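Ligand-bound model needed. zinc ion.
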Amino acid sequence: MDNAILYAPWRNDYVAGEKIEGCVFCHISSSAGNDEELHVLYRDEHCFVVMNRYPYTPGHFMIIPHHHTDALEALDPQTWLHISVLAQKGVRMLKEGFGVHGVNLGMNLGKAGGAGIAEHIHLHLVPRWERDTNFITSIAHTRVYSTDFEKIYRRLKELSKEYF
Ligand SMILES: [Zn+2]
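Prediction:
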């Protein structure tokens, strides 16, 4: 078992699709009409929840404030609390609806902290299953097939209506 993998599973960060200029998270934030295409699971006035395009495990998603900042410590405390509330809902959804055995929850702050998109903070929720380490090692450098990705998105989108 490679614990380094277990404790930092969100290295493959969200990577911008082609033709998105500027901050990809601000792009998603302001594209409410395109939620299906952008794989958004949920949005409200403070935050949105979106699938990670390069998931570490199937069902990997992120909770992201609309407010563009790279400084967690400067985030409006109300927004931070809201992210926490959504994290609880997300964990419940993964456990009850998606059959996970565990979840890795975390933020990479700054490039040095491993963030793929450092300019706009985001909280990762990475589903885990018993004995999935071999699986994760094997897919760590491989993209999940897009058909599977779409299927998982549709499943989580359905669950999101119930849990968020
Ligand atoms: Zn942004």
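The radius of gyration is 15 Å.
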